[in-house]
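Justification of computing resources. Each target in the renewal requires a structure prediction run like the one illustrated here; the chain below, 365 residues long, is used simply to show the kind of job we budget for.
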Amino acid sequence: MKLISKLSWLFVGGLFIFSGLIKINDPVGTAIKLEEYFDVFAADFASFFLFFKPYALYFSIFLSALEIILGVALLLRWRLRPILRGLLVLIIFFTFLTFYSAYFNKVTDCGCFGDAIKLTPWQSFSKDIVLLILIIILLATRRYLPETKTARVAGALVALTAIFSFGIGIYAYNHEPFIDFRAYKVGNNIPALMKPSSPLRYKYIMAKNGEEKEFADYPTDSTWKFKQMIAINPEDGPKITDFNVWNDQGDFTQEIFNGNKLLILVQDVTKANTKSFAEINKLIAAAEKSNKNIKPIILTASSSQDFDVFRHETNISAPYYYGDATVLKTMMRANPGIMLLKNGQVAGKWHYNDTPDIQTVDQKL
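Resulting structure tokens:
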């Protein structure tokens, strides 16, 4: 039992730290996932949950940092009883969220490990059940985990962990994530990721006389009734399925992939940082004069009426097109954000707080 307790201690502490670091690396992405939960709970339980949506970012940073702090405190064996109780409360909360998502098919990706590791709702729930069992084991076998004899040193390390964790979250919010796990990270080729890496293969679930059977090829026997088609190699499918650019004249997606494009992503004009456009406008003007033949383009999810008002307020001058709001949030966490494309390949990404000069942009091409 002592060995089980030790292994549980290492596994739980390590996993909470890992999970917290992944999420706090991208606090905006975690906040978006929390907003999904608030919308679901508001629709299924009470509209009261919508009150929390404006504070999703604060919850994101706090919960992510809390995972790291509790994980470090557990591994240091500092104040074990309250730490284990805190972990128990946290995992019960997460277990409820993942069960609700899985059973009612509400949020198809819990965001447990951000964009780094994608889990299905039932996989997320299973992971939380395992953690719940291990934490209960730790509470029952606490005698095998003596508290640290250097409580002051451990307490100081936990305090430093808290400062470090919140610092990472605040910095990552004001810039891009330290590590980009998204499909639109620098170096990725967007049009290539819109295609399957190999032809998708399927199996067919058919039924006849109350019997179900799998077929590698669609049966020619018409007495079999189709029930379901399942991809055998879904991991080989397109990594990007919803990138699309258009305006009132039609679809311009392929045009975006030709040549050097400086994309200014404005997800929502009502929430965009308007002060940043002084520097962005300078970059646009310089890009138009660059010998690298850079074409500035604005992508927005706002309506034409709202964007026209916004365009005059910020004095931004460049052709603008529309994109899906979720896609723009995935491409860039900042609003506005800057993305440089070279024949569809992401050559650079910048938060509005890190707006580059034209020399930096030219060097990327």
